[in-house]
Every structure is written in structure tokens, then in C-alpha cells.
Known about the structure:
Layout: H1 3-29, E1 65-69, E2 73-75, H2 79-95, E3 99-101, H3 104-113, H4 124-134, E4 138-148, E5 151-160, E6 166-175, H5 178-194, E7 211-218, E8 223-226, E9 229-234, E10 237-242, E11 245-253, E12 256-264, E13 269-275, E14 277-278, E15 281-288, E16 293-296, E17 299-303, E18 306-310, E19 313-320, E20 327-333, E21 337-344, H6 350-402, H7 407-449, E22 462-469
Parallel strand pairs: 1-3, 1-4, 2-4, 7-13, 15-21
Antiparallel strand pairs: 4-5, 5-6, 7-10, 8-9, 8-11, 11-12, 12-14, 15-18, 16-17, 16-19, 19-20, 21-22
Helix pairs in contact: 1-6, 1-7, 2-5, 6-7
Amino acid sequence: MSRRGFSLAACAAVLGLALQAGFAAPLLAQVGSPGARAPASQTSPGAVAQAPAPPRSPPPSSGKELIAILDFEIVGASKAEASIVSDRLREELLHTGRFTIVDRSQVDAILSEQAFQQSGCTSQECAVQVGKILGVRRIVSGKVTKASDTLWQASVQMVDVETAETLRAESLLHEGRYVDLVRTGIPELAVKIAGSAPIAAAPVAAPPPTGRVSIVSQPAGAEIVLDGKPIPEKSDVVLERLTPGQHSVALAKGELLGSATFTAVAGETVKVEVTLAQNAIAVRIESAPAEAAFFLDGKEQGNTPLELQLIPASYRFEVRQPGYISAEGKFEVKSGGETRLTATLEPMTEDYARWSAEHSRWNGGRWSGWIAGGALLAYGAVEARAVTASKAKQDDLAASARSATTSQAYSSALAQLKREESSARDAKKLSDAAYVLGALGVGVAWWLQRHEPPRPPTEESTYQFTVLPQPEAWSVALSWRY
């Protein structure tokens, strides 16, 4: 059996147990290419005088250089081919995250107004003049040369507008198709050009100020509870990254306890010294009838009556006695006196015993239905995704078979295609079966949830706490809770 079949069979077996256990009780008692460039702004720039005007472009965002890119000069290529190359360079430089680029419509408007549209702006002096009008610090221009359909040359230069100095000049000789030049060559040029432009480091927010505390206890090696939460470190230790302000600390080592409060100060180390003392609280546990098993936080402590030494905290308890209804709940031990817990257990009637067994089966069936049903639905989703992936692979294999140039390649692709189709059919069957069984399991769990066996009328076991006065015998008073 395959791993898929085994997993499905295992989930189905669990679901079968859920159905068998779950229905019994209710019957007895009743869930790549780069993204397209954003459309250029349609807002026409205002009229431009022959002399340089104030900057038209918005200031660059923090840490980015404001640049403009001119259409490439054409040698042997068409205007459309050169325009595509310049647009590609514009996109790639923008994707480096190092530049804010002036919109092409603004550049075209300046060239038109300055009478460069017909003659072209091919000289460095012209590029500098356009850059000053646009209000940028750097301007990029280039040339596309077409020697043949399979031999191209692209050159790019970045010029400092203020000094007219060429900061970077890069060129690329490309042997191949024009589309490959645009797809791979221009991005390479963009990386080279971007590498020369230093970018101001983005400001890093300073971390919030924190303080430190040195906790020293006598004796050392005590467990620590800081601000009501236990921490893994033990005394003596220095704790860092504390929020400035008031904090509390409690320590315990065996039956020795201690506590203190302190104020953390940013950038400083505060020293806290605590002397531990015998400060456990006596807790007396009694029950009627006696000799009942007592559990504290899930761990058996012994039979009643018994006395425990506990540190101040909240605890969960349960008192069990065969033939009696268990008493369970939560109590809190506080400093200042002995805590006495007295539990009165009620006898378990035949009706209650029958209900308890039925309720246990009902609860097991309900949870088994939720878990098994959910697991089967998840397994069905995994197999469904496998079917989808297989279909895409089948399309690729079919295309490979159609384009095969030899009989051997065709036979190999066809054999792989058949295996993939068989695997997809198996995954589809498993997915459908898992969905059906999963829906059944969830449906059973939902039905059981609404048909809990009614509890027979009976007296509840009860308990009560008594805190007895205690003389002041402590050197330290604890005030934390877990």
C-alpha cells in the first residue's frame, strides 16, 4: 500500500472509531517579467521658458536620488526599438530602489518645448541643460546601435548635471535577438549604472532605552518570578532590557522564599539583594469520606487527610474516591494564614455511573470526529493541490512530446505523460474519498455536539476554603502569583 493510501486508511480507521463510540451514547440518552509600468501622468506640464525654470519634479523620497532618463540615440535601429530599450532601463533602475525617476511625459514635454523633439538631444551639453530644467542632479542618456539582426550594442552614461561630469559610462555588445537584449542585457546595464550612485543610509530608529537589574539572593540558585512571570534564569543573575519603572521579583529555593520591589532606570544597573526564609504556607486538605486521592495541578499528592507546604499561587485540584462524584476546582494560597480545603463527596448513583460512562464515550466520539474529520479534509486539500500541479506538469510533457525531434524523445515524453496521468488519477480518487470521509467526520462531531447525554439529577460534590489566622513569623512576605 502506498503512503497516500496508508494515511487515508489510518484517518478512516480513526473516523470509524469516532462513529462507533460517538453514536452509542446519544442513542442511549439522546468546519518574469517586471510589473507593467504605471501609466504616465496625463497632467501637462506648464509652459517652460527658454531659460532654466524651477524644478518641475517632486523631491525624491528619503535616501533616493532624483534622476531623469532621455530616449536613446538611434544608429541603425528604429525609433520604437530605441524607445523600448530606454523604457526597460527606466524600469530596471526604478526596481533597484536607489532612484526616484522623473516621469517620461515630463521629459518629453521639456524636449518639445526646447525644440529638441525633432533634432534629438544627443549631446552631453543638451542632456545637462534638460537636467537643469527638470531640477535633477543626474541625467542618464544612451545609444542603441544595430549592426545586424543578431548583433547589437547598447551604451549608457550617467552625467552630473551640476558639474557636467560623466559619473559612469557602460556599454554592452549583444550577440543574439533584440528581445534577448531587452530581457537580459538592459537589466545588466542598469545594475552597473546603479552601482556607482552612493545612497544615503536610511535613518535607523534608536531602540527604546532600557535598564538592568542585578538579582542576588542568599542562598544563591533561587528560581525567579519577575512581574508575576517565571523566568528560566536563577539567582545570582543580571537581567537586561527592562522597561524603566516599577517591577516586582519573587524568589524560591526549596521551602525558602523571598520577594522585593525595585525601580529600573534607563541605562543603569540596579542591584536587588534578597535573603530567603522559611516562608511556605501550610495547606490542610480534608475530605468526607477520608482516604480520597488528592491531585494538585494534575499530580497526585497522596490521600486525605494530608498537609502540604505551598508557596502563594493559584492551583487546580481534584479529589477522587471510587463510588463518589469527584470534586474539582481552583483555589489560591495567600500569605498570612493557613489555608484549609474541605471537600464533601457525594455518592455516585447507578444513573450517574451510567451517565458518566455514556458521557465519556460521547466526549471521545465527539473529539475523534472533529480531529479525524479535520485531518481528512486537510489531506484531501493536499491531494487536490497535487492534482492541480500534476495537470500543469502534464501540459508541459504534452508540449515536449509535440516538439520532440526524435522518436526516442517522443517516446520518453509520452511515457512520462502516462505515468503522470496515472498518478493524477490516484491523487484525485484519494482527494475525493478524503473529502467525503472528512465531511462525514465533521458532521458526526457537529451532531454529537448538539446531542450531549442529559445528566441525571444528583447532588454535586462540594468544597470550601478556610483561611486561619497566622502569627507574624515571616521575615519576608510574598505577593506574587504564577
